[in-house]
Structures are given as C-alpha cells and as structure tokens.
Write a structure and sequence with these properties.
The protein has 103 residues and is α+β, with helices and mostly antiparallel strands. It is 58% helix and 14% strand.
C-alpha cells in the first residue's frame, strides 16, 4: 500500500513548512529569481524588493536559515543561490503551469 502524502505526518509537516516559507510575496519572488541564477543582494533587492536592501536581506536570512538559499563570498559581494533542488523543481513546475496558460 502506498503512503499518502497527507497521511504521513512528518512529510506533511515538511511540505506545509516549505509552502508557508515561500508564501510570502518577497520570499517567493526571491526564489523565482534565484531559480534563474546567482545574484548579490543589491541585484535581488533591485528586482524583488524595489531597492529595499534591509527587507531583502531579512528575507534572504530567513530563506538561508531554512536551507532553501545558500550564499558565498566573491570579493566584496555575497552571492546568493538556490540551494534546495526541490524548490527549483517547484518553481519550474509553477512557471510551466501558470505562465504557459497566459500565452
């Protein structure tokens, strides 16, 4: 008998935690951007945070602490990247489902 996702409490909790984490508009926009490549906080803030470095940095910290986003130093810049392949796959799926229907 196959386990149902909703019946497995541990898995259900992990999925709900991830969905809650990415349900914030700024965090969702950050992961969508990072699914396309690696960026420094200034570039991320310019695209998703309307130039608000402080709020963007806070949201990146939340995503980093959850293991969704990683970072590395390149000279004077901190470069952020999507660290969770499951999230990258989820963004690809959402792009196919929602953006394809707008054509």
């Amino acid at each position: 008998m196959k386990l149902e996702l909703g019946r497995n409490e541990a898995v259900c909790g992990k999925v709900l935690d991830l969905l809650h984490l990415v349900s914030g508009k700024v965090r969702f926009r950050i992961i969508c951007l990072l699914a396309r490549g690696d960026f420094c906080v200034r570039d991320i803030a310019g695209v998703v945070g309307h130039g608000n470095l402080s709020n963007t940095s806070q949201q990146l910290k939340i995503l980093r602490m959850a293991g969704v986003v990683g970072h590395r130093r390149e000279q004077r810049n901190i470069i952020y990247f999507l660290a969770d392949e499951r999230v990258r796959k989820m963004i690809r799926f959402l792009r196919r489902e929602f953006l394809a229907s707008e054509k």
